[in-house]
Write a structure and sequence with these properties.
Blueprint lengths: L1 H12 L4 H13 L3 E5 L2 E5 L3 E3 L3 E5 L3 E5 L7 E5 L12 E4 L2 E7 L2 E7 L3 E4 L2 E5 L2 E9 L3 E9 L11 E5 L6 E8 L3 E5 L5 E8 L9 E5 L5 E3 L2 E3 L8 E6 L5 E3 L2 E4 L8 E6 L7 E3 L2 E4 L5 E7 L5 E3 L2 E2 L3 E3 L25
Parallel strand pairs: 1-4, 2-5, 3-6, 4-7, 5-8, 6-9, 7-10, 8-11, 9-12, 10-13, 11-13, 12-14, 13-15, 14-16, 15-17, 16-18, 17-19, 17-20, 18-21, 19-22, 20-23, 21-24, 22-25, 23-26, 24-27, 25-28, 26-29, 27-30
């Protein structure tokens, strides 16, 4: 207890907290793992805080890791890999507090490779490249819940920026996430991830929202997700851009407000190779003068599109169909309607 009190006293007196936090994290790692706990306060970082694989981070709601103006690195917080012996290990959690990118061209939280890791109850602010980047080197089950990744209204994102990015990380759960300010809200390049209750939108000062959801994963599901007003000037912008097979988008909302260019938004676009998806019970609507150009567009032949609702502010692409097998043979049984005798 006395050691902890002395360490906290050192933190309170420092102007650059990088060395003290990094030393403490390594001490916990060397002791066999545990939790780095941070109370309320602002902790300034001159370089990335490397969180060992066996160490969790818990912060109170008013605790903030902030990148300094002189910050040198690509991410504010980096979760390290345990190593080859750590396959299927428990990577713990990153919980609570605020990760502050300081309006710099950085990522808030980077998880190159991990499994059985929970990121929850965290706010990532003003990290202009990415909010959270998961799985650049692979692995599985990195779950994100009750998280907000956002840029302030006047902070411009960077070209190619992404709010929440799953690269090569599978079997993960995403729930209760708000993403504001990025060129792409959520992007999956992996497989078999389940994504629900995610709301994506931008302020005009952040720059264009080209893709609310970029669905480049195989066999992912999106449930009750909200693609809120994609816009990119006179260029097309997309609520859901589906690039690979077997995606399911269910009970979502696609909406265009005053930020969206009239007739330029596409609700759900399906690439030629994105066959055998299901699009069920989604709702498409917009404000007058900011209409959705098409609810559905692209390769629709092998898609199941049923139970969707289209407001009068949707111009085109009003589709209701079972798959016809285009883009590859469909295994959907033929629909037969039998009249009662």
């Amino acid at each position: 207890m006395q050691e902890t009190t002395q360490w906290l006293a050192q933190l309170s007196q420092a102007t650059d907290h990088t060395d003290l936090l990094q030393q403490r994290a390594r001490e916990i790692e060397e002791a066999g793992g545990g939790t780095l706990a941070l109370p309320d306060g602002i902790y300034h970082l001159a370089r990335p805080l490397l969180l060992p694989g066996t160490v969790s981070l818990t912060m109170t709601p008013a605790a903030r890791l902030r990148a300094m103006e002189t910050f040198c690195g690509d991410a504010v917080l980096v979760k390290e890999r345990i190593g080859e012996s750590g396959q299927h290990a428990y990577y713990g959690s990153i919980r609570g507090g605020i990760i502050d990118g300081g309006k710099l061209p950085v990522t808030g939280i980077a998880v190159p490779s991990a499994c059985r890791l929970d990121i929850r109850d965290v706010e990532v602010v003003n990290a202009r490249m990415k909010g959270i980047d998961i799985g650049a080197e692979g692995w599985y089950e990195v779950n994100v819940s009750n998280v907000r990744c956002s840029l302030d209204p006047e902070v411009a994102h960077l070209p190619g920026s992404i709010g929440l990015h799953y690269q090569k990380c599978t079997d993960s759960l995403v729930s209760g996430v708000i993403i504001i300010g990025y060129e792409t809200g959520l992007r999956s390049d992996s497989s078999s991830n389940d994504i629900q209750l995610v709301h994506v939108w931008n302020f005009p000062g952040n720059g264009p929202l080209k893709y609310c959801f970029y669905c480049n994963g195989w066999n992912d599901s999106y449930h009750q997700c909200y693609a809120d007003s994609p816009f990119d000037g006179d260029n097309p912008a997309y609520g859901f851009y589906v690039a690979r097979p077997f995606n399911r988008i269910v009970s979502g909302r696609i909406y265009c407000n005053d930020f969206a260019t009239d007739g330029r938004a596409i609700g759900i676009f399906i690439e030629p190779g994105a066959t055998h998806g299901s699009y069920l019970a989604n709702h498409f609507t917009a404000r007058e003068g900011h209409r959705i150009g098409a609810a559905f567009a692209g390769n629709l032949d092998a898609a199941t599109i049923l139970g969707n609702s289209f407001a009068p502010t949707v111009i085109d692409g009003l589709v209701c169909q079972l798959p016809s097998g285009g883009g590859g043979e469909s295994r959907m049984p033929e629909l037969k309607i039998v009249k009662g005798e």
